[in-house]
Specification:
The structure holds 2 protein chains of 2 kinds. Chain A is 30% helix and 11% strand. Chain A is an alpha/beta fold. Chain A folds into 2 domains: 31 residues; 345 residues, 3-Layer(aba) Sandwich (Alkaline Phosphatase, subunit A). In chain A, helix 8 packs parallel to helix 9. By secondary structure, chain B is mainly α. Helices cover 55% and strands 0% of the residues of chain B. Chain B is built from 7 helices and no strands. Chain B starts with a helix and ends in an 8-residue tail after the last helix. The mean pLDDT of chain B is 87. The interface between A and B is large, with 53 and 48 residues.
Chain lengths: 435, 164
């Protein structure tokens, strides 16, 4: 071999030795910093303040009989009645589809509903006073998802939804005021029980419609006006922004929802007048899931907060919310695009006190507040999903996991955890549940 | 050193002195251009309307009177209950346009410049500039199917209407 030829071949071989290990079977030169385990995550904030005593410990019999296996089978008691439709999961219990962590913790910060929500959605405990009128100061899981999602995947607004049961401070949880994040990476937000109601219908449910030809002309005028004002307007200043085509889809979606609400018994679930706000939120969350198959959906329920004054209603609310969560899972598993590719995380925002307050309900049961005692920090967490991603039918009985672990776990499942800048999250992936 | 050489040296010295002697510094001025955003006088609207302001002003602009408190309350609730405010604002305006009692011109009329000027005064609270009149007058002349309602709808759903 001539010297020149030898040097040439040796050079190529050396370069190949450096490069080849990084060329993946997919053809990519470098490995992605995170690999998706599933393409959809649904986080259910089973909120309002739930005591482990009534949930996973079943001291009042099994009030969550569609989600939990029986320790003490449900029994009718004074005021706590069996009026639920059949379980959406048949004879199975939701916990069979995943891992139940019985001793989860909301470890720090005041045990307030909003604090609990902020912690679960940002992965950070909020120790200080919270301004209820402003967005969180640190990024939410929606912003992490939309900003750090793989560009090749679809981190658009229609793929991230925050569906809350009430207004107050909750609309502000879809994005933060943190520099570099904010509305541009926020989730689409809806509070169905206010918007999709008779009042809502009368207010905005029956608008004038323009033909597509008319809209072309309207857009010509508007486009001219907007161009003249472009240097003064920041679209994000009024909230999350969708593209024109996404807006058209959202407007059509609202129209569909308003058509549905005009018929009595619109859910078809058989609750009649016993329909609760929690169930309404579950119903419309299912509509969002069926319509958009979002990659990241967060919804909440808070009816059980009636426990401040009425323990019996708390128990009945818990039963209905339990039924709703199982119905939601059943819907997910029957929605093309979501079935078999979704992990659902169910977690309360905090618990309630061990000691009752002074209020006694009509059935002689004492009521409970949540003032940051040890019991009010004890919650559970259930993670269900495909058996190649989530440990099936597993129960973790020792103290494990806390509220700040939710965001890292979602980020791990959707493959963007390693792209989140260091120092923003302090929780860990819940590896007792996630494979 | 003879006389000739001495003269040469003296001349050279004098020449050097003349060449490098002190002279008055001339003031030098360097002019630059600052970056400035130019905007039409009267079109500065840096503030975002609050949701209450937006709903109230829109109602007044369309119906010519103050929105009833109960209606304002219902609309505010709806407004808060959806994330993309642009969609809600569009629906609020179209819902108003679908009700009776509107105080908007029924037609554009023959004098398009007057129509455009009136619409700008009512919706934008300012006069249109010459270019705006030129463009829109031309558009209304060439697109005869544009109605007064479409024109007002376009202005009220534009970005300028969101601010003051």
């Amino acid at each position: 071999m001539k010297r020149r030829s030898f040097l040439k071949k040796a050079g190529i071989a050396t370069a190949g030795a450096f490069v080849l290990p990084y060329i993946l079977p997919s053809g990519r030169l470098f490995a992605a910093t995170g690999t998706r385990k599933v393409n959809h995550v649904v986080l259910v904030m089973f909120a309002g303040g739930l005591r482990n005593i009534e949930t996973v410990k079943q001291n009042q019999s099994n009030l969550m009989s569609t989600m939990l296996k029986d320790i003490t089978p449900f029994s009718t008691q004074a005021g706590i009645v069996d009026v639920l439709p059949a379980s959406p999961l048949g004879s199975n219990r939701l916990q069979q589809y995943g891992t139940l962590m019985k001793e989860f913790r909301f470890k720090q910060g005041p045990t307030g509903h909003f604090n609990g929500h902020i912690t679960a959605l940002t992965g950070r405990y909020s120790m200080a006073e919270i301004n209820l009128r402003t967005n969180p100061e640190v990024p939410t899981v929606f912003e992490y998802y939309r900003k750090h999602n793989d560009d090749a995947l679809t981190g658009t607004g229609l793929n991230a939804w925050w569906i809350s049961d009430s207004l107050g401070p909750y609309p502000a949880l879809n994005y933060s005021s943190y520099p570099g994040y904010g509305a541009a990476y926020g989730a689409n937000y809806i509070q169905p029980s206010s918007l999709i109601s008779w009042d809502g219908y009368n207010a905005i449910g029956n608008p004038k419609t323009f033909t597509s030809d008319e809209m072309v002309l309207v857009n010509k005028i508007r486009g001219f006006c907007d161009a003249n004002f472009a240097n003064q307007y920041a679209a994000e200043s009024v909230g999350v922004v969708n593209t024109e085509s996404e807006r058209a889809q959202l407007d059509a979606f609202l129209k569909e929802l308003y058509q549905g609400v005009s018929s009595p018994g619109y859910t078809g679930w058989g609750f009649g007048s016993g329909m609760t706000n929690d169930l309404v939120n579950i119903y419309y969350s299912e509509k969002v899931i069926q319509k958009f198959q979002p990659e990241l959906t967060v919804l909440n329920m808070q009816d059980v907060d009636i426990c401040h004054t009425d323990f019996t209603k708390y128990c009945n609310g818990l039963r209905k919310a339990d039924w709703g969560v199982s119905h939601l899972w059943n819907t997910i598993e029957n929605t093309p695009g979501m079935a078999g590719d979704t992990v659902m995380i169910v977690v309360p925002e905090h618990g309630r006190n061990y000691a009752p307050n002074t209020v006694v309900d009509a059935y002689g049961r004492a009521a409970y507040d949540h003032n940051s005692d040890d019991t009010s920090r004890e919650i559970f967490c259930m993670i269900v999903g495909p058996n190649n991603v989530v440990y099936q039918d597993k129960v973790v009985t020792q103290e494990y996991g806390e509220s700040i672990d939710i965001v890292p776990t979602i980020a791990d499942l959707l493959g963007f955890k390693d792209r989140i800048p260091g120092g923003l999250l302090s929780g860990s992936v819940l590896n007792e549940a996630i494979k | 050193m003879n006389m000739r050489e001495l003269n040469k040296i003296t001349l050279l010295f004098l020449f050097s002195f003349a060449l490098f002697a002190c002279k008055k510094e001339e003031d030098k001025y360097v002019y630059g251009v600052n970056t400035e955003t130019i905007s039409e006088a009267g079109v500065k609207k840096p503030y975002l309307k609050t949701n209450t302001e937006f709903i109230s002003i829109t109602y007044t602009d369309i119906f010519g009177n103050t929105i009833p408190t109960s209606q304002l309350s219902k609309l505010q609730t709806g407004y808060l209950a959806f994330g993309d405010k642009g969609i809600l604002e569009d629906r609020i305006i179209r819902s108003f346009l679908n009700k009776s009692g509107k105080q908007l011109p029924a037609s554009i009329g023959s004098d398009k410049k007057v129509f455009i000027t009136d619409a700008y005064k009512k919706v934008y609270n300012r006069l249109p500039n010459e270019y705006e009149i030129f463009y829109l007058e031309n558009l209304l002349s060439t697109e005869s199917s544009i109605t007064a309602e479409m024109f007002y709808y376009a202005l009220m759903t534009s970005n300028e209407y969101r601010q003051f």
